Amino acid sequence: MYESIDFSALAKHSKPGPRYTSYPTANEFHKDFNATTLLESFNRADSKYRDKDLSLYTHLPFCKSACYFCGCNVIYTSKEDKKERYIKYLEKELALLKDSMDTKRKVAQFHFGGGTPTFFDAKQLQTITQMIRHTFPNFSESCEISCEIDPRHFSEDQMRVLKDCGFNRISFGVQDFDDKVQQHINRIQPFSLVESSVTLARKYGIDSINFDLIYGLPYQSEKSFANTLESVIKLSPERLAIFNYAHVPWVKKSMRKIDETTLPSPEEKLKILQNTIEFLHANDYEMIGMDHFAKKSDSLSIAKNKGELRRNFQGYTTKGFSQTIGIGLTSIGEGVDYYTQNHKDMMSYENSLDNNTLPVAQGILLSPEDILRKEVIMSLMNNAKLDFKAINESFGIDCITHFSSEFESLKPMCELGLLTIDSNSIQVSATGKMLIRNIAMVFDTYLVKNITKQFSKTI
């Protein structure tokens, strides 16, 4: 059922805020969390959560050229030897992981991200996958195995290897089909190229395809993005991730090549968003959380309707994990009571591994209060509600008493119709779901007053 959204209310409440792929957010990670801290965290996890599934994330950081909009951690290179060198260091990291944790626990999710994973050729992708499966041999029969793909760097040999290695989900970086937009973000990939890539994936039996799209890019308009959506529907991906472009040139140098005067106004961005939601609903896509869409038959839609969505650094998922193991440069790992991130620069990453040390750059140990607030924020972000009884039983608290000041802060949002609070729960309205980051921020004890330069706007 489609719930109407008051789009006029959204612009009034857009402000900088975290995306809450984690809590605490990555801005709170610190260097006191090191390889020793991670080893201790692994030991606790192996003891407490041995019967829980693992998620694996492997970062393949290389790109041949810069996409000006991109906020990912990447290395631009055309040198082939860098790939082989990186594979050797991945092998070293995997050997250390095998010595540091129980790698025989069941794996329920495995993802290649980047960068451009398909910058690596078919044989190299096979080698990396085999190394990982040798280290973590217990992949479940229903394991979600996915890879991000750049249609500009994608061959049948690569697709054949991915299929042979068990990959069953593909995510294509599409962004926008408009020629002028593509030129000004330095990513030229015509519709025909994406179409042939999708056809290739379907040929090899891939029945779960995602497209990443971005609104708010230079020279985008209501009309141009509507045309992009029409093209998307022709290719019929099962899922869509449609992100609000965050222009942060003080963080990402490549964004300085974008002329800010060519970006759509906040009013036009909001209209693009409204048109997108209405168009996709009319074409049988269900809105998932704040930035994902899925066909109504897709497992994400089913999980949403059951109140079983989860969210991590890879986005929304149907599976809950006690632990995500990050592998490779800049990768982030997560446990019940910690987050960890590998080094972002190659020299530090390699030096750590040469010294037989896990390449940890930073992280954070979560206090009991952090774990509680993480659960509250993720419940709101995932399912747009908070069940007080479930929280009370899990954490031995009384929600209404514990969060009395937060509930007081939420009263203005209640009056605006963004949510309702009664003695049993918080329920977020359709309009409130679009401002879910604003609602979650009320429970974030780490937020500082001046966050303008740290986070993108919530709408």
The CATH topology of the largest domain is what?
pyruvate-formate lyase- activating enzyme
Number of strands: 19
Biggest sheet, open or closed, and with what strands and sense?
12 strands, mixed
Please compute the radius of gyration using only Cα atoms. Answer: 22 Å
Please describe the topology of this protein.
Layout lengths: L6 H7 L21 H14 L5 E7 L1 E2 L11 E2 L4 H20 L6 E8 L7 H14 L3 E11 L6 H9 L4 E7 L3 H6 L6 H13 L5 E7 L6 H14 L3 E6 L21 H17 L2 E4 L3 E4 L3 H8 L3 E3 L2 E3 L5 E5 L4 E4 L2 E5 L3 H9 L5 E6 L2 H16 L1 E3 H8 L3 H4 L1 H12 L3 E3 L3 E4 L1 H5 L1 H6 L18
Short structural description:
This protein has about 450 residues and is an alpha/beta fold. It has 2 domains: about 1-20 and about 365-459, Arc Repressor Mutant, subunit A (Orthogonal Bundle); about 25-325, pyruvate-formate lyase- activating enzyme (Alpha-Beta Horseshoe).
